[in-house]
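Throughout this review, each integer encodes one residue's backbone shape. One record appears below.

===
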Amino acid sequence: MGDLTQNFSLKEFLVSSTADQLGLNNTPTAEHLRRIREVVAPSLQKIRDLVGASIVITSAYRSPSVNRAVRGVPNSDHAQAWAVDCHAAGLSILGLARFIRDAMQAGQPLHGLIDQLIFESGRGIVHISFAPRKRGMILTQRGGPGTPFQLGIQP
């Protein structure tokens, strides 16, 4: 049981191996904490309920020092507490990305929740942003940070 939703705890949204390795503070501001509690965690819970499998968060909120250390862009949705990188138990990364894409395109209950869905095959994660822009972007990034994006989910 989580303290934010049925399946997610705040600790999961603050996990950072970079912060741990470098001794960096990854404490969210009150506004970032509000976003995690009121938007990101409940939205990710909806995805988890649809997928029917545990979702493991590998990165979510990044404090300014953590964001700099991972070479994130200053306006990163992670630094703004809008995004998560994750994978799901029993599903390939491609399978999870396709599942979420299909649910987004089918409408409810994910309609209007997701700003960006990025299948990051080079990093082995699915990036989901719940930023208020709600563009519904579906992209693939085959390389690491700074590499080009392709439209759609591309294996």
Q: What stands out?
A: Residues 53 and 112 are 22 Å apart (CA to CA). The longest helix spans residues 30-51.
